[in-house]
Specification:
Layout lengths: L7 E4 L5 H12 L3 E6 L3 H12 L4 E6 L5 H15 L4 E4 L14 H29 L2 E6 L13 H21 L4 E8 L5 H10 L4 H11 L8 H12 L10 E4 L14
Parallel strand pairs: 1-2, 1-4, 2-3, 4-5, 5-6, 6-7
Helix pairs in contact: 1-8, 3-4, 4-5, 6-7
Length: 265
């Protein structure tokens, strides 16, 4: 039996990438995983997960995190069908590059709506039940981009990922007496569709070059695997992490360690 046996976890942006990796690991650890995504691909991802991992339990819902009514309805439907939610992973996010001289209100709004308002909507939907039951685990997917470092053309993404840290800490202090924890994960570069898109935006003619150079710049010399974020998220969601709240945990292969790219080399 895993350390999440008997728990139900709702994961946003679970159709692919880090969200799917988190869903896979939490399911392996015994949780009933509620996979949600704006894309209908989430249904196929849930089906494939159950086929590839014997004994895991999943349920899939198409959900737009930017729509508070949709989020509320999905949470109600999921709890009616599967029981109370114990874990929320705010993973849904968007990352599009833009030159600072061409800051676009539409692009800014998209990032704020998905990355910040989306997390807000999900917490608002699940928190009353968690507070009533005096139990909950809230995990928010921030990034090293914004809070720690920043590459060019990331103004919208970096701003929203930094804001998620304050959001997570505010929830942590306000809900600690209810046996609810709220923590932020700060990933570096992981091999996901979002990172693939960033590589394509950076060099449309040779995105693999970008991926190779990213990997070379990371001390462990590779990009992360989504399941590796899953292991961290599963730990934070477990009772083993009951004394951890308001934390921000980097998982970046050491990419934020170097002070320079030349000294001592």
């Amino acid at each position: 039996m895993g350390n999440l046996t008997g728990r139900t976890a709702l994961i946003t942006g679970a159709a692919m990438g880090n969200g799917l990796g988190i869903a896979r690991v939490m399911a392996q650890k015994g949780a009933l995983v509620i996979m949600t995504d704006k894309s209908e691909q989430v249904f196929e991802s849930a089906r494939r997960l159950e086929e590839s991992e014997k004994g895991v339990r999943t349920a899939a819902y198409q959900m737009d995190v930017t729509d508070p009514d949709c989020v509320r309805d999905v949470v109600r439907e999921a709890e009616a069908a599967h029981g109370p939610l114990h874990i929320l992973v705010n993973n849904a996010g968007v990352s599009l590059l833009t030159d600072i001289r061409e800051m676009d209100e539409k692009l800014r709004k998209l990032h704020f709506d998905v990355n910040i308002q989306g997390a807000w909507n999900c917490v608002k939907a699940v928190l009353p039940g968690m507070m009533e039951r005096h139990y909950g685990r809230l995990i928010h997917m921030s990034s090293v981009t914004g809070p720690v470092v920043c590459d060019p053309a990331n103004i919208a993404y970096a701003t929203t990922k930094a804001a998620l840290l304050g959001f997570s800490k505010a929830i942590a202090i306000d809900t600690a007496e209810y046996n609810i924890t709220s923590n932020a994960i700060l990933p570096g570069y992981f091999m996901t569709p979002m990172v693939q898109l960033t590589a394509e935006e950076t060099d449309p003619n040779d995105p693999q070059r970008v991926l190779d150079e990213i990997a070379e710049s990371v001390p462990v010399k590779r990009l992360g695997r989504p399941e590796e974020i899953g292991y961290l998220a599963a730990f934070l969601a477990s009772d083993e992490a009951a004394y951890i709240t308001g934390a921000e945990i980097r998982i970046d292969g050491g990419s934020t360690l170097p002070e320079t790219s030349c000294v001592g080399r």
